[in-house]
């Protein structure tokens, strides 16, 4: 690691404050260009510890930058991961206030809930499918804490991969007989289709993304536990939203997820 512990803690405070006040900041690598990948996850871990100390419950995990197109655009070879919070969960069909967000965007994903632990490294897609209790449709609302979404990858990891809110659908189903790569989704904004995609956009199959999460955690000696809610990564591009917008993500096979921004 290139950063001292007190700097890691100060950066976590900076990011937490930006989120809680919905007040964007400059990307942290402007001040600490020497920051390495261990530092980036150390800041994310410190952010998570701050939130837990303040009474926040971790509601799940997420994968980010899971499409080959976005990885290439960002100049990375591996996706990244972050955590979800209890206060980030919005009920299906619910409202969420833009006043508490900076510049929210929505992206359609497939979520997994496991029935068995997965312990990397060496986890394969088949292991994920066997360990999955059910999948469900979900929309992630990302909201970078950086001004104008201007960031680099290490800053994004530190910023908990832009995680902000999420909405899970109410229809769950087992993976048996479901071709996750072929699931299609459309994002409908105020009655108009604004984005669409197919499940294979996520590393070929969203279960592959969950395997990668288990393996990334495994390198750090952390198991992916049964019962964990996991957002596997965006099938569609991210769509900006503003007060008054109604969003519906319509999936083949999995139903729909709706929400309104106020
Ligand atoms: O969930 C995601 O794929 C977002 C990763 C962070 C990059 C961004 O904010 O666009
Ligand atoms: Mg996402």
From TrEMBL:
It comes from the Bacteria. Its EC number is 4.1.1.77. The keyword Lyase applies. Keywords: Lyase. The keyword NAD does not apply. One of its GO terms (cellular component) is cytoplasm. Pfam families: FAA_hydrolase. Coiled coil: none annotated. It is an enzyme of class 4 (lyase). This is 2-oxo-3-hexenedioate decarboxylase. It comes from Pigmentiphaga litoralis.
């Amino acid at each position: 690691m290139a950063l001292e512990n007190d700097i890691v803690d100060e950066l976590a405070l900076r990011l937490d404050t930006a989120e809680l006040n919905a007040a964007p900041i400059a990307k942290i690598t402007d001040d600490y260009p020497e920051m390495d990948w261990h530092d980036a996850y150390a800041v994310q871990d410190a952010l998570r510890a701050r939130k837990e100390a303040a009474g926040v419950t971790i509601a799940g995990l997420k994968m980010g930058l899971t499409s080959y197109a976005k990885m290439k655009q960002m100049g990375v070879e591996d996706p990244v991961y972050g955590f979800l919070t209890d206060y980030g969960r919005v009920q299906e069909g619910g409202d969420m206030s833009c006043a508490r967000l900076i510049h929210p965007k929505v992206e359609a994903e497939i979520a997994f809930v496991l029935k068995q632990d997965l312990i990397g490294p060496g986890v394969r897609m088949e292991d994920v499918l066997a360990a999955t209790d059910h999948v469900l449709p979900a929309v992630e609302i990302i909201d970078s804490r950086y001004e104008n979404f201007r960031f680099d990858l290490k800053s994004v990891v530190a910023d908990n991969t832009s995680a902000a809110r999420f909405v899970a659908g109410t229809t769950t189903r087992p993976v048996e007989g479901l071709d996750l790569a072929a699931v299609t989704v459309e994002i409908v904004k105020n009655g108009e289709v604004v984005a669409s995609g197919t499940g294979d956009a996520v590393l070929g199959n969203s279960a592959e993304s969950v395997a990668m999460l288990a393996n990334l955690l495994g390198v750090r000696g952390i198991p992916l536990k049964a019962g964990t809610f996991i957002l596997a990564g965006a099938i569609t591009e991210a769509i900006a939203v503003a007060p008054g917008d109604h969003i519906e993500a319509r999936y083949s096979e999995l139903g729909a997820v709706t929400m309104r921004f106020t």
